[in-house]
């Protein structure tokens, strides 16, 4: 056994130190350790540990008992000289050990390696790795541990092992190891008598071992068991195998069998159209375009895939985009595009998880309930595409491992991959069609120059044209740069251009071909040296921006230039073909040019200059985010970023829509900058930038990003001892905790924030912390506690002289006065809140206030007034949520909930037709929300999924009916009740049943 700590979960829960087994104590203590190890490094809240230990009967002293278990485990596991094994993380604990220190970690590692080997076509290696993974098991996982959580984990691990056993058996069958397999498969099938796949593999192993009669007997045994236990016959795959064994099909003796097609899941409504624009300058490639064809009859066992490969700068993306536009009409369900950045520096390469996340964004799957694990995200992505016909362009792939998780399971989709390498593993795994792009022919290269520079100019100097083509090695990127230079200086002879090219040899290492003249760096360096000094500096500094596109003001800030001056320099850069203006004031830099610019920065700009550029870029985005956040909300719940550097040009906003659109456009950039700031000595900017994003991320439902930036902010602020920053970051994390129903940790974090703001002497921040606590208490159903928080917030807002804050405090009073049976008081508080918030112009709180007033009026039987308030609130909420980024977000659901209450108020007021209209709209929105594919496939047992599908069918059938009869409203209410009950069971309907 390895030296150091080792752990076992795939059998009895055990631990060793340097080979000697350790005493882990009682079963409950071992279950505590198992719960932490199963989290794979994730921090496990105390509530989750308690649920694992005691289920629903958690004792009052649970927290103290768990603390005792952890202390005892620490004494056993930690030797003193090494890093801590169990660390405290706010409201819970985490085990931090290497993956290979746990048998489950080694199992997962070997399975990943086996899957990668299999994708490369290395069958023997994959089989050995699967075998190694199975050998990690030591009997029943978590043996000796009891409780619902332990049983659920045990069942999950058993299923995972069986899946691997089946994959291993399939590979061994392919390798001809059938006789050795029979006994093992027989034992597995006996242990899992209803698992048809095991019986199928056993039948095939018997048949290939020359034991046809026994294979048929195994089928008869399975059929009898299924009939007795479940009243069903074996599935079609097993029945087909039985039939082929009966007739002694010789094809069964060789090669893997065809996999059955998985039944498709529900489809989303979104129709993406993400292809980059087709460039009019495209030339040639007729033969390659003709060679890139879609199969007439796709293989039902795998997606249709094509790989376009060739050296850097050969025009793979341009070619792929041209072909994609030509066939786009054949894909009515949309076209998806991802730049995988496979050959940029490691820190910017798009990992599969990030790529799948972006694809789900494009397909309209909300962020709020997406799983975190890559395998679960991939399953969701494939289910979304199950019955779709989409074109998927994966650009600049690094290797097969980067691409495989992005392949749909649907053979009607077509995946086009571009890469600088051949991706032979992908070709072997999928049978992908390949198209190799070579450098341009002499004829096409000449036509390229003629299209860019004019036929007459090219025809006038044929020798120079041939020299230019030779110097550029007929590489499209190099030719484009040269053409930009020549076009910008029409008075230059092409002979002079050719001479400069010949003299400017250098070498861009990543793009060197067999022919020394195919070195692109010489072309780029020549083009760079032709720039004016200020334009050359701007070109270099664009590489500091964490995206390939940048707006004018951000670029001007990086360079510390006035906006007008930066705009003039961009004209020079676009003329030299070193950047492209993709929209007014927004510029794009090709990835090869960014890489070249980074090399130039390292060679020409001092460390102090580079740090100043990064600081200016951060300040630009911080101050712009501050301005946008002030537009989204009138509340002064923002730390003051101070005055910007005079060399920085932050953007201003004239409207809510402009501010929201900026956040949507720069979403990814802001997340990246926050993380970069936290690790480069700009911790204060990191936590401030995280806080400026909170309204957008919260309202749009980007919970994953909201948690990421706030945890980054907390680490950054803690590192520099910034009390104020720590307090704000804890408030951000408290919002996440409350969203996930972890109210205890949320309240603790807010209490800690309150202490920090008190130490900092920030009365207004204390008031807003109490205001945030109102929401946590309300979510818990503690309306008396929420009223106390509202009272405290109101007093502090008044002390700070904040009118908009006073409005928010009064809103908190009104909301909870109604819930506590005091609607008359709520109307008084709400009316005053409305006046203050209207004066401030805060849309979000105005919508909430109108909802609260509507609720109070309804409680008093004043239904016409209630309807009026609701109508105004819905109009406001819709104006805020009218963005694709906000579909099924917090704001979207506010509208749905308000429509339900509006229909009730209208009905009570005697406006029956209008009540029906509001309720129909609410039911339609609910159908859209619950029809999202992640709900249909995503969770729970079969009964839950069946219930959801039944509700959706009921909704669709009901909405198809006309609004006829006096009982329509009552029938609609019955349907709504059924929908709300099912949604609440799934954890999605709290806002419907409040």
UniProtKB/TrEMBL annotation:
<dbReference type="GO" id="GO:0043531">
    <property type="term" value="F:ADP binding"/>
</dbReference>
<dbReference type="InterPro" id="IPR036388">
    <property type="entry name" value="WH-like_DNA-bd_sf"/>
</dbReference>
<dbReference type="Pfam" id="PF00486">
    <property type="entry name" value="Trans_reg_C"/>
</dbReference>
<keyword id="KW-0238">DNA-binding</keyword>
<dbReference type="Pfam" id="PF03704">
    <property type="entry name" value="BTAD"/>
</dbReference>
<dbReference type="GO" id="GO:0006355">
    <property type="term" value="P:regulation of DNA-templated transcription"/>
</dbReference>
<dbReference type="InterPro" id="IPR005158">
    <property type="entry name" value="BTAD"/>
</dbReference>
<comment type="similarity">
    <text>Belongs to the AfsR/DnrI/RedD regulatory family.</text>
</comment>
<dbReference type="GO" id="GO:0003677">
    <property type="term" value="F:DNA binding"/>
</dbReference>
<dbReference type="InterPro" id="IPR027417">
    <property type="entry name" value="P-loop_NTPase"/>
</dbReference>
<dbReference type="InterPro" id="IPR016032">
    <property type="entry name" value="Sig_transdc_resp-reg_C-effctor"/>
</dbReference>
<protein>
    <submittedName>
        <fullName>DNA-binding SARP family transcriptional activator</fullName>
    </submittedName>
</protein>
<dbReference type="InterPro" id="IPR011990">
    <property type="entry name" value="TPR-like_helical_dom_sf"/>
</dbReference>
<feature type="DNA-binding region" description="OmpR/PhoB-type">
    <location>
        <begin position="1"/>
        <end position="97"/>
    </location>
</feature>
<keyword id="KW-0804">Transcription</keyword>
<dbReference type="GO" id="GO:0000160">
    <property type="term" value="P:phosphorelay signal transduction system"/>
</dbReference>
<dbReference type="InterPro" id="IPR001867">
    <property type="entry name" value="OmpR/PhoB-type_DNA-bd"/>
</dbReference>
<feature type="domain" description="OmpR/PhoB-type">
    <location>
        <begin position="1"/>
        <end position="97"/>
    </location>
</feature>
<keyword id="KW-0805">Transcription regulation</keyword>
<dbReference type="InterPro" id="IPR051677">
    <property type="entry name" value="AfsR-DnrI-RedD_regulator"/>
</dbReference>
